Amino acid sequence: MKTWTALGVGLLGLVATGAQAQTIYPISRAEILAGSKFDFKVEFPGAPAQGAVKVTINGQDPAIALGQSAKFVEKEDGGDLSAYWIRGAQISKPGAYIVEASLGDKKATVKWEVFGTPQRKAKNVILFVGDGLSVPHRTAARILSKGIVEGKYNGELAMDEMPHMALVSTSGTDSVVTDSANAMSAYTTGHKSCVNALGVYCAKNKSTLDHPKVETIGELAKRRNGGMSVGVVSNSEIEDATPAGMVSHTRRRADFNDIVKMFYDVKPDVILGGGSPNFLAKSTPGSKRTDEDDYIKKFEADGYKFVSTKQEMQAAAKAGSSKVLGLFNTGNIDGALDLKILKKGTVSKFPDQPDLVEQTKAALDVLSKNPNGFMLMVESARIDKYAHSLDAERTIYDTIMLDNAVKAAKDFVANRDDTLIIVVGDHAHPVSIIGTYDDDTPGNQLRDKLGTYAEAKYPNYPAPNADGYPEKVDVSRRLAFVFGSYPDYCDLGRPYMNGENVPAVKAADGKTYVANEEYCKDPMAARRTGNLPLDANSGVHSADDLVLTAMGPGSEMFKARVDNTYVFRVMATALGLGQ
Amino acid sequence: MTDHPHLSLTRRRFSIGAALALFASPARAAEWISFDTLYKSFGVRGFEFADRIVALKGQEVSLTGYMAPPLRAESTFFVLTREPLAICPFCQSDADWPVDIVVIYLKAETPLVSAGAKIIVSGRLEVGSWTDPDSGFVSQIRIADASYRRV
Ligand SMILES: [Zn+2]
């Protein structure tokens, strides 16, 4: 009993000290690219005066290691903490760095690894991010676009046919399950951070734009190797988390208007996506800005060719434009199933949108003219968005579209060995293929139609067209691609032919979500009681590891299990960005 | 889908619409307008309102649409959309709401029980950029001093 009490007190003591200890950014076990820029911050709780604190790096004044002296902010943001800052710090010498911060008898210690890079191996890097791309997405895309007979596929996905592979873990500093902002930030900066954050550590700053920054690969590529070209391509709004991760520093991914400015500050040579309203001056009908800045005009004034249709984009690439800004939709660009087969979504409003494949080809045309090489990021964004909305067919078709874009990149490197290609998700979704739904199975409930094990047989999608898409998706025996997290909803077990699934709608209380009764009217609909909290309106991400595939110079570094931050390390090493 | 930066809206008891209602002209037969005919052009560089819409500025109009889920159950302020909207446009990143919305300022604070329902709104048409002083919500077209009924 005595021992138990002592242990309890001991634990409490630890907890109390832990809660009050000073916090150092970058955090412990950070891997920092030699010469990359980062903000060094120490937060001292209790708002002590400068004279009361001591900060050292490898036992010396941080100014020696970081090349500039610190700024001390007492009671930062009027709060109960003082901050020690060296913004825009750089360390050029690789090695281990021990950072200590003391206040009275309280001392915090973190250890950084600063890594250099050997001789540059790759001229170019193409990073394909399938947002939410999970292993079942690859399986389903392969079944639909290649076909399978007697257990063997009739062909390989371009993304599967690569010599190197790794298992990638995605958890952040704050949580086991992460989001696309934090996940992309790990790829583009090499630092772990928290949900909703892009290119910053999550400190206690009040302004979302003041948190300690770490440099992105978009910024690094621009200022290293004599100035590489940078491309950011997505079918989401270009301000959305994944494309924003190439250029942005904000604690809050929803800062779309600030993110547009960050794009403008970094100036990627190719910017292709949706989301035009945040580029338009507030007084323009359709704008979502809160100021009078017209960013389309600003980019044009800086020599960018602005394009808003596929035809214009392809003409700009053909005409030899070296800088292209393409915004093809006010929201997200329509996904492959709507764009190619069903013509739903916003296809009638925006009839000449490019798909991800055409965007990738145009980007490669423009970027490959730079003799210093390029860093291109291509995101298939709606794999994630359709997984959130529990829309199986749309999430699968957008995986096929990603694969076609990968194929275009492989065609680009066919006669060269100077380009590293990586294909990876950013976080997983809890999705799985559990069999098939067969309309011809007797029964009047959806579960009667589900074939499992031997009864599943194979689905009867028609052979895919030349682009790998089956042109009929509402077939009589289709994949049962199911979702492990969901709000209350009515499951149809078949494709949403009239537009993306809207599983749940807001309840009359204005807070919680209830099943969208529109679908519940269907005689075969299965009403599912949600397994998520009541304020969820769609499925959520999962913490499952991802499969990464890669080819080209530098790809041999991928093996076994790695953290998502390691993807940055491989790209930076291949490009020799730490020279 | 994980970001939920809740805007803090302060309770708005007297809308501009309500104040202006004091000077409104006597009711006339409302002109019918529709989401399909609001714009002359609609593209990524913004949109232009149709000539008829501009001409109807300040007049009584009726418009059919869907009430977007409101921020709270009782308000004078909500968003009318062309299609039913699953999400509360104020509750999530502004990335999520459509561009072609019409903001409604009701004559009086009303329990907004019809979220997601098809409704007909009648009131005075306002066209031009306007930033709601309480929410910071920017709108280009509004129906003020409005009332609504379910279809
Ligand atoms: Zn997501």
TrEMBL record, chain A:
The keyword Translocase does not apply. Keywords: Signal. Gene3D superfamilies: Alkaline Phosphatase, subunit A. CDD domains: ALP. It comes from the Bacteria. SMART domains: alkPPc. Belongs to the alkaline phosphatase family. This is Alkaline phosphatase. It comes from Microvirga terricola.
From TrEMBL, chain B:
This is DUF3299 domain-containing protein. It comes from Microvirga terricola. Keywords: Signal. Residues 1-29 form the signal peptide.
